[in-house]
Amino acid sequence: MPNVDTTADSMKEAERPLDMHELSTAFKVLRPLNRLVLAVSGGADSLALMILCHEWLIENSLSLSLYVASVDHGLRPEAKDECALVAELAAQRGLPHATLTWRNNVSASNIQARARDARYQLLSDYAKSLGCRSIAVAHHRDDQAETFIMRLLRGSGVTGLGAMRVKQPVGDLTLVRPLLDIPKSRLLASLRARDLQWIEDPSNHSDAYMRVRMRKLLPQLAQEGGDASRLAATARRLQRADAALDGVASVFFLRHMRPEPGCALSMDPADFMSLEEEFRLRLLRMMLVHVAGPAYPPREEKLIAIDAALLGMRETKIFDKRTMGGCCFHWSDGRVWIYRELGRNPRTILMQNNDPTDWHGLYTIHRPEVDQQLEVKLRDLGADGRALLTEAGLRFPAKATMCGSIPSGLIEALPSIWWENRPQYVIDWPEVASYAGVRVEIEKKNTRSVPNRGPM
Asked: Taking the model in full, what pTM does it have?
């Protein structure tokens, strides 16, 4: 019998580097793109994303332009050197690299959550500056399994248990996770095969973080048949169920939710209350995104609380106002109104050089063509702005809504443009613009899709 070398055949699957066929399967989600930002920290996962994605592009002679970005949060002194290492590896492959620095208050509370939010914002701003619509991150199958367990322990519903998606909206950009079906061990094997070193973040081994504790549970769950592959498959099945439920809720949204000024909504409470609880909760989540803009969806418990409050108003006939997720839910004149909450610190933005201004992810607004010396501000109309318009003899037009009246809070939450200490333009109040003789370029964004962010 011939002496056959069975080394390759006996190599454990977990220790085998990814081949080009597997890379083509993973990265096919990137094929429609012409520009892409890769978020690369210097850790094994993100380095593998950069190295393997670049090799896949070269092998297939694709014209996708890659831009590498590393974020220095200023939380660890080593971070600057780690960003420099990524820059060196990117340069070796002819890839442009940028280090994005977060100016932060390290003594502030909840620093990890703030750092995560800052990372999203820095990467999004960088992508927009390049004309990129997508950002790729290196989450893999083990991350998906950990996320599933964490959300299970937090009592998440179907949407949360679907964990991370391969593609998901982040504001007006798309977050892409091409490695989500690949085990971490295969990424490590791919780096070792190329004799590449990576950086270990000490926080990845600290039991202070829930994700690390969940990671240490995975081997025990695997012994009972709940390995990362099976947990990730369960998450995919829940994503499928989630999409089906959202489809039904979307039909109701389109048929029964009435658009109102300023991206507000109103609905007949009887229609809403005829639905099963699961669909009511999904509609509430859709309302929040449509009215207040893309953001982290609220926890299930908060949705349940608003739902219970609305049902309670029907029973007691005591109609009131509730707030959640930056929105007001106001039962008035037989309808439930949903409009953006002003809050204690209304947002004011100085508009300069006709640069497009994002307003809560709902509108893109350009500075009007007025004297550049004027200080032009974008802000909520507010009670003071409404009073000034009333003094000028302007009343909010009844034809703006099909209802006989409209809550004052909705009007005061309308975006408005000010100079010379008065509102000169108010969205969906055309008489103000006619009175002031102002024309403003505005793009209303599509916000009805519900984001489901995982960790970055």
From this structure: 0.81
